What does this fold into?
Amino acid sequence: MFGKPSSQADYVELDLASQEAKKSKVLVRPFVLKTFEDVTPILNALREGYTIAVVDIKPIKNKDVIELKRAIAKIKKTADALEGSIAGFGENIIIVTPPFAEIYKTPVPGQTQQQGMQQVPAQGAQDREMVE
It folds into this structure.
């Protein structure tokens, strides 16, 4: 290299197959949502495509409900864009999955599966209901 004659080739052989195998492993990763800024690492992990996020929302829920709604809306928007799933478990945990994983949602008796899934109204939806 650099003007010196070399009998060996000047390259390094990489084993790409082993690197891909490491990345394709599914990772279940816990997160704690304390502030709105804590959304960024969650979104970055989801964009990698191999992370199932288990998010504890209790700290932000106790602190600021409006900030919680903003954070969940941003996570939901990213999950939808990635064709993933998002669901709440209990009062303080949400699970967000990549497209290859699906969250089982228990249907409510007497309703179809679509009716059984609750949709959280958008921030302005409550205002519209009061006006109508």
User: Anything to note?
Assistant: The longest strand covers residues 27-32. The radius of gyration is 22 Å. Residues 47 and 72 are 16 Å apart (CA to CA).
